[in-house]
Structures are given as structure tokens and as C-alpha cells.
Specification:
8 strands; Barwin-like endoglucanases; alpha+beta; Membrane-bound Lytic Murein Transglycosylase D, Chain A; two-stranded antiparallel sheet; elongated; 2 domains
Length: 193
């Protein structure tokens, strides 16, 4: 019986530890900077650079999604500070005073980030198995909102005319449309002008 209670206590403590890691509570402080940037940026003690985090001002409920660009120095003055944020992020949270209470967690991925991951995974798969369909294009691109043939062609270092040719395009492209962005193996690409 004592063994079961002991295991139960350990299990419950692990659950609380995991939940505690999901949301971190502490103070936010402004990143000291002379520049005014219109980016939502943050410094954090443990999250790696490039991680997107959600910062919630617990006094008013406002939230922002910020990108971690560095680490908070591990010095006594930063003891209760869990995140340092850019002026633009501070303004978005309607921060008051030098430091204010916040909750910080890893931000869920946006639909665009999920789509980019799926696209990269798809490219990896087609590049790993090029022998299965030798006449087919190796790379494809899913059109996102705001993209044009020109912007897509720049991304893949080709021309809009090549993309039109490889995809038999007669009309404009649409969001969600899959486009070939690399010449089939048997076809030689027209030089980029």
C-alpha cells in the first residue's frame, strides 16, 4: 500500500512539474535599446533563438507572439525576470512601469509555419526518391497568400516564364495551388535573365 502511495505521489509531482514548464510566470522587462523596431522580439533564459513564445500581461490579459533573439544574462538583477521584450512588444502588451507580471509559454505554430514544414517534408521525400518517377519534377511549391510568380521564381532561382511553362499556366495562380518549381530531368531550363 505504501509503495502505491509513493508511486502516486511521484506521478502527481511529475504532472505538476510538466505543467509548470508549459507556462512560466515572472516579470517582463524592456530590452534596453536606442533603436525603435517594429518587431515583436524577446530575450529568454532557456528557449533557443528562433523560438516563438506567447507573452501574456497578467494584469490586463493582453498577449503577444514574440521571437526569441537571445538569452537573458544570468545575473542577480534579472533574478525574477523571465523575459525581456522589445519596445514594440512592450507597447503591444500595454506594459506599465519598468517591470510587470507576465506568463510565458512556447507559442503554437501558425498555419503558415505548419504549411512550410509540410512543404519542406514533401521536398525531402521527393528528393530522396527521384528514381521512382524520373520524368516528374523534383520540387514543388504550394502558393501562399500574397505570392506572385515573380516572388516564387526568385525563391527558387528561376524565371516566371519557366514556372508558367512547367505548369502549363494560362491564368493567374491561386492560393493553395501546387506548382512545379524545378525543370523535369529531361528538359533543360531556360537561363534566368
Amino acid at each position: 500500500m505504501k509503495k502505491n502511495i509513493f508511486i502516486f505521489v511521484i506521478f502527481i509531482s511529475l504532472i505538476f512539474k510538466i505543467q509548470a514548464q508549459e507556462t512560466e510566470r515572472g516579470l517582463a522587462e524592456l530590452i534596453p535599446s536606442e533603436e525603435t523596431s517594429e518587431n515583436l522580439l524577446a530575450l529568454h533564459r532557456t528557449f533557443p533563438n528562433g523560438t516563438f513564445i506567447t507573452v501574456k500581461n497578467t494584469t490586463n490579459g493582453r498577449k503577444i507572439r514574440a521571437k526569441v533573439i537571445g538569452k537573458i544574462p544570468d545575473i542577480a538583477i534579472n533574478e525574477k525576470v523571465v523575459v525581456k521584450i522589445s519596445q514594440f512588444a512592450y507597447d503591444g502588451l500595454l506594459g506599465k512601469g519598468k517591470k510587470f507580471p507576465v506568463e510565458v509559454s512556447i507559442a503554437p505554430k501558425t498555419d503558415e509555419e505548419k504549411e512550410d514544414e509540410r512543404e519542406k517534408e514533401k521536398e525531402k521525400i521527393t528528393e530522396k526518391n527521384p528514381k521512382e518517377e524520373p520524368n516528374k519534377t523534383l520540387k514543388t511549391h504550394i502558393v501562399k497568400k500574397g505570392e506572385t510568380l515573380f516572388s516564387i521564381s526568385k525563391k527558387y532561382k528561376t524565371t516566371p516564364q519557366n514556372i508558367e511553362k512547367w505548369n502549363n499556366l494560362e491564368k493567374s495562380i491561386k492560393v493553395g495551388q501546387e506548382l512545379a518549381v524545378e525543370a523535369p530531368k529531361k528538359e533543360k531550363e531556360s537561363p534566368k535573365k
